[in-house]
């Protein structure tokens, strides 16, 4: 464990766009490496690493110039030291690449004077464990029970064995316990215990961490066998506000429009207290999809129903001229409005990259699906978090991420245990 004032280091495996990392960085942990195979997610991670560096040296003007489009990415990154960008490793983890990954991490540890890794975080791709994925398995060339992603936990365990962190966080979908008849879960527990860890696994909901979203995940936390550590007790946070409040300072738009300026200088208490927006922020990713007239008509009907007693649109109840899908027995709720007047909405998914029918803005005057920035806010990403790539890639990154506010709630409790400080002495900052 670290003594008072000592740095706490972590590695993020299967990092995605960095939701888990963000929570740990905001809490005061230092990142040694973010490992991810997706190109655009890695660029997003590089941009976020650059953000933290520029913030530390008082040069945030460079970051905001980049977000405004005043300088190119090449010019932006030219101000960032190589050692900062090297923490992002674009590589697919496998038996053939893991030795080289270890060498690169060892080099980064030496450069950061990190004698040890305190925490490893991450969760492998969840499609092979998800209930939905298993339901679709019969239509795939490789059935889910033969999916090689089922065994990615073994690579995770290799990192535990190599770096022996004091604790680790393994995030995944609820279905991980029942995948392949429970056999995979049994193997995961056995493997983590084999490499020297006690573990506990509990369902957690992002809304209990203050996220305005009903997002249930399985959070496995492990600690070195024989230590006095334990699975944290997370206190449920009461959310003060609604999803409408969360989105209220973002400008209204019609389908196909883009706005680059906030519609008001003041913003709700929830946004302020959780560091989602600051006075210096530049508005990005607030560009709505264009929609055909038929979809707009359907959106309006869905919004009217929701705002009239929280009724959901049933696809079969639409006029025949608005129906185009042959499947009338399943997914009859394929058009769904975000619950604006609730303190949390339904789960944000990467499916947003395909269409926005399941995430319709609750304001009928806008009759459109939500933007990347609105989805990111629902996921609790701060407005200064910039997602690289085209809109499709941005939606995938946002939808697949662990909400940073949830990650921070986990990180705070781990920080308390590792720093040997009680809750009254731990100061947690917001980026």
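^ Assign residues to that structure.
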């Amino acid at each position: 464990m670290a003594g008072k004032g000592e740095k706490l280091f972590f590695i993020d495996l299967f990092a995605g766009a960095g939701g888990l990392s963000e929570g740990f960085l905001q809490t005061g942990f230092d990142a040694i490496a973010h490992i991810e195979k997706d190109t655009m997610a890695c660029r997003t991670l590089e941009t976020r690493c650059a953000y933290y560096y520029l913030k530390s040296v008082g040069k945030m003007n460079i970051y905001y110039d980049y977000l405004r489009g005043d300088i190119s990415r090449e010019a932006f990154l030219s101000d960032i030291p190589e050692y900062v960008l090297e923490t992002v490793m674009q590589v697919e983890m496998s038996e053939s690449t893991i030795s080289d990954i270890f060498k690169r991490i060892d080099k980064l540890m030496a450069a950061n004077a990190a004698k040890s890794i305190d925490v490893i975080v991450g969760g492998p791709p969840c499609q092979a464990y998800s209930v939905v994925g298993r339901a679709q398995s019969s239509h795939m060339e490789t059935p889910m029970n033969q999916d090689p992603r089922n065994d990615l936990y073994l690579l995770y365990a290799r990192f535990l064995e190599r770096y022996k962190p004091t604790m680790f966080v393994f995030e995944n979908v609820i279905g991980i316990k029942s995948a392949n008849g429970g056999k995979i879960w049994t193997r995961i527990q056995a493997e983590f215990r084999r490499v020297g860890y006690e573990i506990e696994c509990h369902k957690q909901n992002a809304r209990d961490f203050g996220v305005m979203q009903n997002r249930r995940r399985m959070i496995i936390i492990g600690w070195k066998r024989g230590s006095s550590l334990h699975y944290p007790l997370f206190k449920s946070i009461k959310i003060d506000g609604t999803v409408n409040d969360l989105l209220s300072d973002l400008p209204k738009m019609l389908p196909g429009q883009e706005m680059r300026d906030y519609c008001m200088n003041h913003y709700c208490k929830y946004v302020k207290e959780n560091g989602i927006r600051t006075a210096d922020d530049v508005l990005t990713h607030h560009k709505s999809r264009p929609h055909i007239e038929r979809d707009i008509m359907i959106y309006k009907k869905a919004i009217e129903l929701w705002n009239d007693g929280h009724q959901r649109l049933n696809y079969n109840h639409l006029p025949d001229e608005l129906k185009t899908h042959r499947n009338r027995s399943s997914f009859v709720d394929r058009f769904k409005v975000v619950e604006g007047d609730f303190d949390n909405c339904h789960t944000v998914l990467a499916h947003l990259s395909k269409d926005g029918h399941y995430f319709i803005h609750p304001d009928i005057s806008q009759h459109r699906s939500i933007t990347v920035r609105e989805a990111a806010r629902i996921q609790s990403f701060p407005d200064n978090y910039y997602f690289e790539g085209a809109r499709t890639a941005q939606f995938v990154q946002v939808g697949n991420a662990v909400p940073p506010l949830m990650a921070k709630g986990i990180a705070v409790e781990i920080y308390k245990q590792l720093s040997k400080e009680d809750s009254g002495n731990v100061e947690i900052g917001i980026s």
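Residues 130-138, 421-431 have pLDDT under 50 and may be disordered.
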